[in-house]
Amino acid sequence: MPASTPDPTEFAPLFRSCEAVQGRDNSLMQKVFELRYQVYCVEMGFLPDDKYPDRCEIDEYDAISAHFCAFNLRDELVGYVRLVPPDLTQSFPFQSHCHELLAGASLAPPEQAAEISRLMVSHDYRRRRGDVLAGVTLEEDAAKVKQDLRDHTPQILLSLYRQMYAFSIARGTRYWYAAMERPLARALGQMGFAFAQIGPLTDYYGPVAPYLGDLRQLEAQVAQKNPALMDWLRRREVSDN
Fold it and tell me: Which residue range(s) make up the domain with 142?
């Protein structure tokens, strides 16, 4: 029998995502903090592992953040990201590391913004040489990058971004900050999520630059580039959690 044709309206058929709420989904949040410890302390060495004797990476932003998790078809945690709102000083985490803006760049109104933070994919989905934390390869060949958009890792990214998008629209968040490696920014641009770089390269858990995305502009970009993807992003994902 011929192989079944993939549903062209489903962009992450191998994964599902959901919001994890502290105080409600405590067992899931435990897995989140363990994944963050494994990635940030053990694999990447961004943070000293001896600072976290319980093998859970937790910081001062977690209590105010929205947390999102991606799972594979075996219900295993394979990806994570959080959205951090402004703190009491109306500042974001990236501003403690990225102190300069590029000429002509400006910040968004803090009450309408959030920072994409701790975006990561499990090591099992980062097996290519040069993969960054989000699972996107350092490959510079644009044709290969475009081809990679159909592999499993971009599905994880799309699933997580779908959850963040729904959360942001519901709460009136219009702008996303993100400190990203160039390959991730490039891959997101290939999908239609073209963020604008607002600061120079700096060391913020690795060499990254700060970017800013306006959701109204991102919606227009994705709708023009891939209307089916925009329709999919707007459809509410049914979650078992």
Answer: 15-90+108-178
